[in-house]
Amino acid sequence: MGAPAYGAVLLFALAPAAAVVNGSGAGVNSNSVLVALLDSHYTELAELVEKALLLQTLEDAVGRHNVTIFAPRNEALERDLDPEFKRFLLEPRNLKSLQTLLLFHVLPARHPAGSWPAASHPTLSGEDVELAAGANGSMRVAHAAVTRPDAVLRPDGVIHGIERLLVPRSVQEDFNRRRSLAAISAVLPTGAPEVDPRTHRLKKPAPPVLPGAPPVLPVWDAMAPGPSIAPAPAPGPGNGKHHFDGHSQVKDFIQTLVLYGGYNELADILVNLTSLATEMGRLVSEGYVLTVLAPNDEAMARLTTDQLSEPGSPENILYYHMIPEYQTEESMYNAVRRFGKVRYDTLRLPHKVVAREADGSVKFGQGEGSAYLFDPDIYTDGRISVQGIDAVLLPEDDKKPATPVSAPDRKAPAVTGSRKSKLRRGKLLEATCRMAGVFGQRSRLASCQ
Ligand SMILES: *[C@@H]1O[C@H](CO)[C@@H](O)[C@H](O)[C@H]1NC(C)=O
Ligand SMILES: *[C@@H]1O[C@H](CO)[C@@H](O)[C@H](O)[C@H]1NC(C)=O
Ligand SMILES: *[C@@H]1O[C@H](CO)[C@@H](O)[C@H](O)[C@H]1NC(C)=O
Ligand SMILES: *[C@@H]1O[C@H](CO)[C@@H](O)[C@H](O)[C@H]1NC(C)=O
Question: pLDDT tens digit string along 133-158?
Fold first, then answer.
């Protein structure tokens, strides 16, 4: 162990007691924000910083300039963190991800509550983070509220307490990728399956499927029959051989939606309408792939009561936004460029969604019920792809000509700047809850009270 590392450990050991630091180089004295962090009640963060071997880096940083540290509550790191994600962070081979994540919590400048610049700021991780201010003086950093502004003030920096961990996009992506790889490589290759074309069922007891190969049955045959789902001829074949951890992947993409911002309503629905997320997870586990066209919050807010009034509406609407293919922004754009118009199947049989090129982007649907691909590739893990769109799509015969939605002027997607994500309960979720109440299925929903 080299001298700097030893100094760092010494710093950590001494900090709570005397905070007298020797030999660890310039920059850190007993009055440093770094010493204060190690001595604070943010013990989980302090421990992670140490595990990530970042003390020296931070010492060097405070030697050069002031810092602003966002410190998640202990509970945010202990209890509220997805155990699998935590395990990922603590695996030695993922040290780089842990370091990136922690350095994402440190800005190389002094931003006390009194001078809170609501803008995008570089962090020590290299990625930018968004600071925002509420009208009432509340402070936010990315998707986390600042719960204890100026928790620690020192000559060389400040610490703000925040409600939860900030996860930079690159780390979320590393995590997603690592897990998909693990899922695929954990499977042994096996023979090809056979399907009876007349019955649409598998011949013989569930033959194994090659890892990564698409399942033999069309996705609709694998979908669970439900009150609101278009023709689902038989219960899913569920051969018990799950090559993919679809449920985790669905969880990941919901998490990614939340972090991305502007898709809270969809994320809410997927979390709360558990049957839908479970179904998606099951399909992915069985080897199906999905592209989700995710309407953003503004789009969801434009839904009319009429459009929501039919039984099963929320589920039907969402199934119409799921394409049983893996498509990225690039693949769809190339397809519409080449073919002009492309019709994609949806999970809502027999409805298809039409895509074409418009204004250098992909446009789905027709007329006023059309939507631009607005936020490309929000999430792509090889099995689930999520593409943000700026309107809710409705199949042709669902559009009620009697109640034309006054489509507000929308422009082709610009690069999305800093949209404020507001957390609220949307119309679709309310309708879902109402429906569930009517049909006595309240228990399906995590929180409809
Ligand atoms: C640390 O520094 C103090 C003075 O600042 C000195 O008295 C002490 O001997 C030093 N300790 C070590 C281990 O170098
Ligand atoms: C940190 O900020 C204080 C107050 O703004 C300033 O006096 C000090 O020189 C800064 N320290 C460094 C290392 O830039
Ligand atoms: C300020 O407004 C936010 C919502 O914008 C709310 O969550 C927070 O509790 C409010 N804070 C105070 C101090 O009123
Ligand atoms: C579920 O719905 C409730 C209220 O509608 C909302 O407050 C909550 O955030 C939702 N759950 C999640 C994890 O989004």
Answer: 988 889 999 989 999 999 999 999 99
Residues β-bridged to residue 162: 72, 146
Stated pTM of the model: 0.46
What does DSSP assign to residue 319?
H
**Ligand 1, atom 1, residue with closest C-alpha:** 22
pLDDT digits (tens, 9 = 90+) for 358-371: 888 899 998 777 89
Which segments within 12-138 are labelled E, that is strand? Answer: 67-72, 106-107, 120-122, 128-133
Q: What is the number of the ligand 3 atom nearest to the C-alpha of 136?
A: 1
Using alpha carbons only, what angle is made at residue 153 by residues 162 and 67, rounded to the nearest 5 degrees?
Answer: 75
Q: Is 66 in the pocket of ligand 2 (CB under 6 A)?
A: yes
Q: Ligand 1 atom 2: the closest Cα is on which residue?
A: 22
Q: Report the separation in Å between the CA atom of 20 and the middle of ligand 1, taken as the mean of its atom positions.
A: 8
| Span from the CA of 33 to the centroid of ligand 4 (angstroms) | 36
Query: Which domains does the chain show, CATH number per domain?
Result: 3-180 (2.30.180.10), 219-389 (2.30.180.10)
Residues having CB within 6 Å of any atom of ligand 1: 22-23
Atom of ligand 2 nearest to the CA of 27: 13
Q: Which of 115-124, 197-206, 299-308, 402-411 shows the lowest per-residue confidence on average (mean pLDDT)?
A: 402-411
How does the average pLDDT of the chain come out, rounded?
76
Q: Check if 423 has its Cβ closer than 6 Å to any atom of ligand 3.
A: no
- For residue 289, CA distances in Å to 244, 282, 322, 382 come to 10, 11, 10, 8
What is the C-alpha to C-alpha distance for residues 353 and 346, in angstroms, rounded to an integer? Answer: 7
